[in-house]
Write a structure and sequence with these properties.
With 347 residues, this protein is α/β, with parallel strands linked by helices. Helix 7 packs across helix 10. The longest helix is centred in the middle third of the chain and has 15 residues. The termini are far apart. 33% of the residues are buried.
């Protein structure tokens, strides 16, 4: 189509119309893309194709889900509607149906925590992983509604929808964590909790250091084979920035023994927890690097008087934050205290 020329303009030689394109920053603060979300989707889909093998490596997810749900024992209320964000294979739902979880020996016969939850919405971006255990018996003990998300970084729920939001071992794959936490705060009802656990800090530091030293020795450089993780010192600030109140953050180290470094890496792949960093080196590790990493792992981290197994540390960061509400307890204003802390400590 030829461009139209206004009759008020002098006669000019007609030239083809060329549309010029410009790079424009989208609305909102720019976010750094660290992980390839499509790659992570494919990894989880592939892992769920073999349900039996996938269940065998659920030991970390099941353990952390159990410890996460135990924190609900300190919240003396019922939850009509709860969101499990990044549900994986609904490990939280299974933990909620477990009996005798109360650590108080006087209440050893306490029932499942799930009896205090009317409806649990389990949301994940991987349909195969989300529905992997849909036919297991625990589904009859709790009302689980599985919902597939296009992307876990964008929540399709209305404001003030849920009485609690839970998340176990999924947040460490989120690119824009501050934005997601703000969305979680938005979908919560006032004075309702967000309880989550994510891998962070020095998780798998034994494997990281061994791979780095092996590549330096054999290839003269270091590739990106493990993911960057949030530090516990940053989590409180992120929660506060998202608008959460009454924050609680703690760390738990779970050490798992493996027969070899290769066995650890195989389990990570079977979990769907393989490397998904943008710009990572494609293809498997070179054989000489793997052999060197195995030897370095045993030399630096193996137990001399043990059975030959290798420890792998999973550092789990637990967090609790409350959405602000009108009847929520608040700290007194500065200067309103009646007791001098110095007198108490010296007294």
């Amino acid at each position: 189509m030829r461009p139209s020329i206004s009759p008020f303009w002098p006669t000019l030689r007609r030239r083809p119309f060329l549309a010029r394109q410009y790079a424009v920053q989208a609305a909102g603060a720019p976010s750094l893309q660290v992980f390839n979300r499509h790659t992570k989707y494919l990894q989880k889909e592939r892992a769920a194709r073999d349900p039996e093998a996938s269940r065998e490596v659920d030991y970390i997810r099941d353990e952390v889900a159990g410890r996460l749900t135990e924190r609900l024992l300190d919240i003396k209320r019922d939850f009509p509607r709860v969101l499990d964000l990044g549900a994986n294979a609904c490990n939280i739902a299974k933990a909620l149906t477990a009996a005798n979880v109360d650590p108080d020996l006087a209440k050893a016969e306490s029932g499942p925590i799930g009896t205090r939850i009317s409806a649990l919405t389990a949301a994940d971006s991987s349909p195969a992983m989300l529905h992997r255990d849909a036919d297991l018996p625990y589904n009859a003990a709790i009302d689980v509604r599985r919902e597939v998300l296009g992307d876990e970084e964008f929540l399709p729920y209305e404001a003030n929808t849920f009485d609690a939001v839970l998340s176990s071992l999924s947040l460490h794959w989120i690119n824009d964590l501050p934005s997601l936490l703000a969305q979680v705060n938005n979908v919560l009802k006032p004075d309702c909790p967000f309880v989550a656990a994510m891998l962070g800090g020095d998780t798998l530091f034994e494997l990281r250091t061994s791979l780095q030293l092996a590549e330096l020795e054999r290839r003269g450089g270091v590739g990106t084979h493990t993911s960057p993780l949030a530090d516990v010192r940053d989590v409180g600030g992120l929660l506060q920035r998202a608008g959460f109140q009454l924050l609680t953050v703690d760390v738990d180290d779970i050490v798992v023994s493996y027969p070899s470094a290769s066995a650890l890496m195989v389990d990570l792949q079977t979990m769907g927890e393989g490397n998904a960093v943008l710009g990572r080196e494609m293809g498997p590790l070179h054989r000489d690097v793997l052999l060197a990493a195995e030897g370095i792992y045993r030399e630096l981290h193996g137990e001399a008087d043990g059975d030959g197994s290798l420890p792998a540390t999973f550092r789990v960061i637990y967090m609790i934050g409350w959405k602000e509400g009108p009847n929520q307890a608040k700290p007194l204003e500065r200067g309103t205290g009646r007791v001098n802390l110095k007198d108490v400590l010296e007294g």
